[in-house]
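Bug #77: duplicate submission created two jobs. Keeping one. Sequence:
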Amino acid sequence: MKFTVENMSCGHCVRAINNALHGVDAAAKVNVDLANKQVDVDSDTLSVDQVIAILQEEGYPATLKA
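Kept job's structure:
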C-alpha cells in the first residue's frame, strides 16, 4: 500500500509514523520517503482504512496513492 502524506517534513515525522504503525502491527514493513512525501506499508493485518486512521490520529493525513 502506498500513501501520500503531504505534511511530513523531518526525521521526527518519520519516527512518529514508524512508531504509530509498528505499535499496531510490529511485523509491518514501513518505508517512509520524506523527499517524495510517500509512505509504503506492507502488512498482513492492517487495511488501507486502518493505516489512514492511524496516520490521521498522529496528525499526518494520508491518501492512498493510485
